[in-house]
Amino acid sequence: MSQRFPVCNAKEIVKVLRRHGFVLAGQSGSHQKWRHTNGRQVIVAMHGSKPIPLGTLKSIIEGSGLDVDEFR
Predict the structure, then answer these.
(1) Among the ranges given (2-6, 40-44, 53-57), the one the predictor scored with the smallest mean pLDDT
(2) Which of 3, 39, 43, 65 has its CA 20 to 30 A from that of 24?
(3) For the chain, what are the domain ranges?
(4) pTM of this prediction?
């Protein structure tokens, strides 16, 4: 992927996931499990307003099946 990844925090990621049909399936501590009706699932660590690390963001984007542009 040659696209630049956005800098975003967990709250912004949750907004994008909700907009695309994901629902909160469970939570263990600060880690929330988000599921889509077609079976896709992602885990988002809710650590306040701290930016999500790049590798974690890539994993969330790949797991969600969404484009990088949808997270901008």
Answers:
(1) 2-6
(2) 3
(3) 10-71
(4) 0.89
b/e burial code for range 26-53 (CB count within 10 A of at least 16 → b): eeeeeebebbbeeebebbbeeeeeeebe
**Contact between 47 and 56 (Cβ < 8 Å):** no
The Cα 5–Cα 28 span in angstroms is: 27
Over residues 46-67, the pLDDT tens digits come to: 998 999 999 999 999 999 999 9
SS3 assignment for 4-72: CCCCCEHHHHHHHHHHCCCEEEEEECCEEEEECCCCCEEEEECCCCCECCHHHHHHHHHHHCCCHHHHC
Superfamily covering domain 10-71? Hypothetical protein. (3.30.920.30)
